[in-house]
């Protein structure tokens, strides 16, 4: 599935949540989507937990 299709589906989910549930539901869907994105990146191996705790100086080495 291309990233454009994934983005379209995410946008439609946010639109439905905002329309039917109001702004609070919109924020909840957006926050849970961000959490799902981060968890997915960890599971795919693109990110490691330690990447968030290094300083910029340590990353350049």
Describe the structure in brief.
With 61 residues, the chain is mainly alpha-helical. The protein is built from two helices and no strands. 2% of the residues are buried.
Describe the structure.
The chain has 61 residues and is mainly alpha-helical. Helices cover 75% and strands 0% of the residues. The chain has helices spanning 3-44, 56-59. It is elongated. The termini are far apart. The mean pLDDT is 80.
- The number of strands is 0
Residue-averaged pLDDT: 80
Order of helices and strands: HH
Q: What can be said about the biggest beta sheet?
A: none
List the total number of helices. Answer: 2
Strand content: under 5%
Estimated radius of gyration: 16 Å
Overall 3D shape:
elongated
SS-derived structural category: mainly alpha
Compute the separation of the termini in Å.
35 Å
Q: What is the percent of helical residues?
A: over 70%
Low-confidence stretches: none
Topology, element by element:
Layout: H1 3-44, H2 56-59
Task: List the defining traits of the structure above.
single chain; 75% helix; 2 helices; mainly alpha; 61 residues; elongated
């Amino acid at each position: 599935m291309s990233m454009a299709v994934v983005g379209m589906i995410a946008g439609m989910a946010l639109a439905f949540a905002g329309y039917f549930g109001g702004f609070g539901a919109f924020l909840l869907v957006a926050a849970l989507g961000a959490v799902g994105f981060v968890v997915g990146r960890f599971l795919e191996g693109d990110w490691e937990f330690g990447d968030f705790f290094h300083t910029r100086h340590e990353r350049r080495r």
